[in-house]
Amino acid sequence: MWKPSSSGPATPNYSPEPSRPVPPAPAAEPASRPPVASGGDQATLGKGLVIKGEITGSESLFIDGKIEGSITLPGNRVTVGRNGQVASTITAREFVILGKVRGNVAASDRVDIRAEGALTGDVTAARISIEDGAFFKGGIDIRKADAKPGAAAAVAATPETPKPVQV
User: Fold this and answer.
1) pLDDT at 39 exceeding the cut of 50
2) pTM here?
3) Which residues contact 15 (CB under 8 A, 6 or more apart)?
4) Alpha helices in 35-158 (DSSP H)
5) Residue 10 has what pLDDT?
6) What contacts 77, CB < 8 A, 6 or more positions away?
7) Residue pLDDT, tens place only, 88-105
8) Smallest Cα–Cα separation from 97: which of 110, 121, 120, 116?
9) Spatial separation of the C-alpha atoms in residues 76 and 69, rounded to whole Å
10) Cβ atoms of 113 and 134 closer than 8 Å
11) Nearest one of 69, 59, 68, 15 to 36, comparing CA atoms
12) Is the pLDDT of residue 55 over 80?
């Protein structure tokens, strides 16, 4: 047993446990995963997943796999990653495309097709952005975001020709 007061070698024969290697942090892909809004959660479908059916929910979704069916996330963001392949009708607040999408898109706020992205289908949104190098084939319907929630309903309810009112 080693005693600190004994004269002898300054280092004990005891060797500490070797340091264990720390697993490397996953490499972040800043271009394929845009930052999520600070207040919400985001679900992720990895590139090994294939889903056929309907997706609904109340959180944002990052898709890197394959999806066939409808996606309805009206108050959230849907992001299709570089490896993502979607054949679907999509309803969301925001829609960002880095992969391939075939189907109609309805966004209450904006649609963003990045340079690597491809969209074949019609778009209905308040704003749309198509980067150089992106592929888009379809129609665009720009709808202004309603400043007053009842304004669009009042315009839609007003007939073109007045009808007599019965009292």
Assistant:
1) no
2) 0.64
3) none
4) 149-157
5) 54
6) 36, 37, 42, 60, 61, 92, 93, 94, 95, 96
7) 999 999 999 999 999 999
8) 116
9) 18
10) yes
11) 59
12) yes
